Automatic annotation (TrEMBL):
Keywords: Endoplasmic reticulum, Membrane, Transmembrane, Transmembrane helix
Biased composition (Gly residues): 261-272
GO biological process: response to stress
Gene Ontology cellular component terms for the protein in this record: endoplasmic reticulum membrane
Upper lineage: Eukaryota, Fungi, Dikarya, Ascomycota, Pezizomycotina
Topological relation to the membrane, as annotated: Multi-pass membrane protein
Compositional bias (Low complexity): 244-260
Organism expressing this protein natively: Aureobasidium uvarum
Pfam families referenced in this protein's UniProt entry, alphabetically: DER1 (PF04511)
Name of the protein described by the UniProt record: Derlin
Amino acid sequence: MSSPLADAFWAAPPIARTLTAATVVLSLNFWLLQVVNPYYSVFIPRLVFKLWTPQVWRLVTAFLITSEKLGIIMDPYFLFTYCKALEVDSPRFAQPGDFFVALVFNCSVILLLVSIVFGGGLVLAPLSLALAYLHVQDAPDAMMSFFFINMRRRYLPICMLAVTLVMVGPFGALQQAFGLVSAHLYDFLTRIWPSYGGGYNPIRTPQMVQRWFAKTSGPGNNRSYGTAFQARPSGSVGAQPQAGSSRSGGWTSGFTSGTWGSRGAGRRLGGD
């Protein structure tokens, strides 16, 4: 028997729910339980890229650790909010897998900057800021509420940086600002440069990634003789052309050309 919490979890977008659930689990272990040594979750470039037994999981786990205390609750909330908004409602991520590619690009830029400047660390804060920046670009002049303050959405990234500066300090704000750099670079390459600079979008979703996130079939209808599935739209990934879809008419349409399609003057039965 399913619970309302489980139903709500599976109803959420796949990337948003997976990232949020993994963040909660790993953060609880990192700050409270420590069943696994927290040291193995931190991004340390020399351990990731070493020749023997590279610890490549650090490329992922470093994005899934919140800040301590209140951050264990607030960071997953903001992560889920912005992930869901981009994955479901953003027009720039209309095709399957687009949001996943954007996530990989921003994470790669953040890891590069953090490794150069700080030599590693935990990088969920820059990722959250990058997602927030991309989210507000869809409607920058719309009004929103941030900690009971009504403001235009375009000011959300600056407010998040200001809060980090006050609560964490300048080094934390600088690290979080790397998310602003990565998101602005992504926005420039995928929207500003193609739309206003006459260039092209170099960040495209591969067909393989589109197949990962494409729906395998339409909704099913249970019938007495089996289950009928709705076909994919003709423009979707993996859709197959239907036989005879280019023709119109019934079964007699095959006889509408040549001598079969013409009619004579006709004769009266029994006449000359």
